[in-house]
Amino acid sequence: MTPIAITFLVLALTIIWGGLIGSTVFLAKRPEVTAYPAGGEDVAGERIEE
Description:
Keywords: Membrane, Transmembrane, Transmembrane helix. The chain has 50 residues and is mostly helical. The protein is 54% helix and 0% strand.
């Protein structure tokens, strides 16, 4: 492989794996939303207009 191909390979791997690791760490620290904004409550059986 040429040096430019190796450089782009390393860059692509860093972006992909870095994003995966970063998102995993973020989700581990904040697994779900603790509070939702007011409103948006749906009543069971209520027809939703489109």
